[in-house]
Design brief:
Helix content is about 60%, strand content about 10%. It is built from 24 helices and 8 strands. It has a 6-stranded mixed β-sheet with strand order 5-6-4-3-7-8, sandwiched between helices. A two-stranded antiparallel ribbon has the order 1-2. β1 and β2 (about 315) form a beta hairpin. Residues about 50-70 and about 435-440 have low confidence and may be disordered. This is Potassium transporter.
């Protein structure tokens, strides 16, 4: 009990609530959010942003980089690898937490009935399926139901804990003294180390709490933990320890055995509902870190649905939701035992905790400019705790601990390959920007001008897209009006129509550049409104005879006979001649597979299929 108390206090309260939760990035939490903040200050490159775009993003977020460091390539790679490992472990945790939470709560049926383990597994799978089905409603809608449940859960456990302390052993509060923990380590030797893998379970939710910052404000999380979670959990454990002082034979099923008979069934129902809440929290956190990974170019493009018009981080990712559901069912049906799942659970969480400690140490030095002694003290104290828990958890490697490592290894491979392929693809496309300068656009050249408007989508703020250059090289015809469009998201719910478009004519007649800014809840080009706004902008800069064709009055549809096309690039990557077999295999059979099966840009931007022209761009990397 002394170990549990000091673990809750040092790791849960001091490390995470008072220190780590302050390391958010525009309200987002988790290891990738911390890395994103480090990346901006230390000017680490990402595969989807050029240096110029990076400076633009810095200006947009108001982040100062004076005195920022420029780390070596090796340092950047080490930090990125650590972040990817932690991210993959936490995604794996997204299927382990629901598994152990629901199975543990449903197993209470075996205490008072003749129900077998197969029935427990079946009921658990049914509950989990329903949980994932309702995820599409979003955190805000689910929270209306979950908040009362979790408050009732903590209050009920608090009351039962007080009851057990009073009835069984009021002197259990002596366990708060650290000397019992020290004596236990001294007297029990190896057993005191092995038992850490069980003690670890009292803080396995701290990383999910950090990752969930995008769904709740930091102040709300800190207040609820200090005023509700910490005291309720502590009293619950003290009550169970007091119960075990007199009933040590109940150690295998302490939670349900310690519940007084008159309130057993109500507590059973509440525990199932609380398990669902805990599961929903880690699933929401998984959505957040996948979104962060995607924005930094470390995850294939997926559909992100914003479920709240108030809190930006409240999102739903269909692909991730159904994948997690399948993995969770596999875990429950495969392990068939909460003890084996808990072994796997501990390994995943401790890896992430250790990496968070390392990143926070770097953050103390680079972001918050603390002195080296403060950063070193944080690293030594919490690093030693994390390593102790991790070593104990890895002792259960053959008894379930292998699963999160295997799953994270697969996810890590996907992330690294996507990052590697995207970075080299962007570098290759950047090198082709100069090709546009060789095309004689300014003087008209031999390029024919045809009626109509071409809206060309690009990821960059400057230069000519490689897809457009490739199109001109093979089809020497240019639309009467060409607009290069860059879509960017800003961290507010909605952008007014008057502030959405940044528009400027280019030196070549009929060519324009447009940056479209969207809030995180704004629909993209719903009912063609974005296209109409662009056409009206062009009309203001055009000759009267052309302007008359382009203007679209409010409430009117775009003329069907207007020759309007949307041009998007579809990049095809191939290995350079002489590429080694291993590199060629990963490019042809892994990265290209991921690229083909990720969501296309045309789907993300709601481009009409009947007006879409996709131009293939072959890139050798």
């Amino acid at each position: 009990m002394s170990l549990i108390f000091w673990t809750l206090t040092l790791v849960g309260l001091i490390k995470y609530v008072f220190i780590v939760l302050r390391a958010d990035d525009q309200g987002e939490g988790g290891t990738f959010a911390l890395y994103a903040r480090l990346a901006r200050v230390a000017r680490l490159p990402t595969p989807t942003a050029t240096e110029q775009e990076y400076d633009t993003n810095l200006a947009r977020f108001g982040t100062k980089i004076e005195g920022g460091v420029k780390p070596s390539i090796a340092t950047h790679r080490v930090v990125l690898v650590l972040v990817l490992i932690a991210t993959c472990m936490l995604i794996g945790d997204g299927c382990l937490t629901p598994s152990i939470s629901v199975v543990s709560s449903i197993s209470g049926l075996k205490q008072i009935s003749s129900i077998g383990n197969n029935a427990v597994i079946g009921i658990s799978c049914a509950v989990l399926v329903l949980l994932y089905v309702f995820q599409r409603l979003g955190t805000s809608k689910l929270g209306v139901v979950f908040a009362p449940v979790i408050l009732l859960w903590f209050f009920s456990n608090f009351c039962i804990g007080i009851y057990n302390i009073v009835v069984w052993y009021p002197g259990i509060f002596k366990a708060l003294s650290p000397h019992y923990m020290i004596f236990y380590w001294r007297d029990e030797d190896k057993l005191s180390w092995e038992v850490l893998s069980g003690v670890l379970l009292c803080i396995t939710g701290v990383e999910a709490m950090y990752a969930d910052l995008g769904h709740f404000s930091r102040q709300a999380v800190q207040l609820s933990y200090c005023c509700i979670v910490y005291p309720a959990v502590l009293i619950t454990y003290l009550g169970q320890a007091a119960f075990l002082m007199n009933r040590p034979e109940s150690v295998a099923d302490t939670f349900y055995d310690a519940i007084p008979d008159p309130v057993y069934w109500p507590m059973f129902v509440i525990s199932i509902l609380a398990a669902i809440v805990a599961s929903q929290a880690i699933i929401s956190g998984t959505f957040s870190i996948i979104r962060q990974s995607l924005m930094l170019g470390c995850f294939p493009r997926v559909k992100i649905v914003h479920t709240s018009g108030i809190v930006e981080g409240q999102i739903y990712i269909p692909e991730a939701n159904w994948t997690l559901m399948v993995l969770t069912i596999i875990v429950v049906a495969g392990f068939r035992d909460s003890l084996a799942i808990s072994n796997a659970y501990g390994v995943a969480v401790t890896f992430v905790m250790l990496i968070t400690t390392i990143l926070m140490t770097l953050g103390l030095l680079v972001i918050w400019k603390h002195n080296i002694l403060t950063a070193l003290a944080f690293f030594v104290i919490f690093g030693l705790i994390d390593v102790s828990f991790l070593s104990a958890a890895l002792n259960k490697f053959l008894h379930g601990g292998w699963f999160p490592i295997a799953l994270s290894g697969i996810l890590f491979t996907v992330s690294v390959l996507w990052y590697w392929g995207t970075k080299r693809k962007v570098d290759a496309l950047d090198s082709k920007k100069g090709i546009a300068r060789t095309v004689a656009l300014k003087d008209g050249g031999k390029i024919a001008r045809v009626p109509g408007v071409a809206m060309v989508y690009t990821n960059t703020y400057t230069g000519i897209p490689a897809a457009f250059t490739n199109l001109l090289s093979n089809v020497p015809a240019l639309h009467e009006v060409v607009v290069f469009i860059t879509v960017r998201y800003v961290p507010i719910p909605k952008v007014s129509l008057g502030e959405r478009l940044l528009f400027m004519p280019l030196p070549v007649p009929g060519l324009y550049r447009c940056v479209a800014r969207y809030g995180y809840t704004d629909p993209i080009d719903e009912d063609g409104e974005f296209t109409k706004a662009v056409l009206n902008k062009i009309a203001k800069h055009s000759k009267p005879e052309l302007a008359a064709k382009l203007i679209v009055l409010p409430g009117k549809a775009i003329e069907a006979n207007m020759k309007l096309v949307y041009v998007m690039g579809r990049t095809m990557t191939h290995p350079k001649p002489g590429t080694g077999m291993i590199r060629q295999f990963f490019l042809e059979h892994t990265y290209n597979f991921l690229r083909r099966n990720s969501r296309t840009a045309s789907g993300a931007f709601n481009v009409p299929r009947d007006r879409l022209v996709e131009v293939g761009v072959v890139v050798e990397i």
